[in-house]
Amino acid sequence: IPVYMYSVWTGEFWPSMKSQYKQIQRRAWGVENFPYQAWYYLKIKNLPFKKGLHYLWNQLEGVYSWATAPILIFILGRLPLLVLEGDEKASVIAQNAPFILESLMTIAMAGLILNAALSTLLMPKRPENVSAFKWIIIVLQWIAWPIMMIIFGSIPAIDALTRLMLGKYLGFFLAPKDKVNTAHSVNT
User: Fold this and answer.
1) Rounded distance, CA 97 to CA 153, Å?
2) How far apart are CA 57 and CA 36, in angstroms?
3) Is the distance from CB of 25 to CB of 60 less than 8 angstroms?
């Protein structure tokens, strides 16, 4: 069965961003997958219980960490200094938490830079009808990636999970796709 990865595109920038948000929100809701998985794993006779439980845990944990991880990473380094009082605030662990997180984020940033460099190197040669400015914009999009992780990762996921918690059905949203030109930003 072929799988197509069409880009969300309505023909305009802001409506496309809204559609992208709704599509990610629907995927983050995740509740339609879990009951089927649980029911299916119970029906499989040769699937060990522990393995099925592992798969179910991955599904649940993935949805919740997707929603919270970028925001937690953003605030966690300074959190001990904000919530602790007196002598606790002066402890070595509390004082070093921001520096430890800074080191971890530096390592992660090195991975992001490596990923951006490899992605840029693997890009096909720029077509002659595409301006160099648009090509540079594609490369510079990597700088916005950490911010986009919160805007198009955490926020729609938290929104979806909050709606699930409150019993507000999301419904089905079919995001408009550009099926003719999947590399819209490069070719226009």
Assistant:
1) 25
2) 14
3) no
| CB 33, CB 164: distance < 8 Å | no
Rounded CA separation 155/147 (Å): 11
User: Nearest CA to 21 among 185, 182, 175?
Assistant: 175
β-partners of residue 8 are 177
Using alpha carbons, select from 96, 98, 68, 38 the residue that is nearest to residue 161. 68
Q: What is the largest CA-CA distance in the chain?
A: 64
For 13-39, b/e burial (b = at least 16 CB within 10 A) is eeebeebbbbbbbbebbbeeeeeeeee
Sign of CA dihedral 18, 23, 27, 32: positive
Give 94-136 pLDDT, tens digit per residue: 788 788 888 888 898 898 889 888 988 898 888 888 888 988 8
User: What sign for the dihedral angle of Cα 164, 168, 172, 173?
Assistant: negative
Residue 177 φ/ψ, nearest 5 degrees: -120, 150
Which two three-digit tokens encode residue 122? 């693997």
Q: How many CB atoms sit inside 10 A of residue 120's CB? A: 12
Q: What is the rounded CA–CA span in Å between residue 11 and residue 143?
A: 24
Q: What is the pLDDT of residue 2?
A: 64
For residue 52, give every residue at least 6 positions away whose Cβ sits within 8 Å of its Cβ, in sequence order, or none.
41, 42, 44
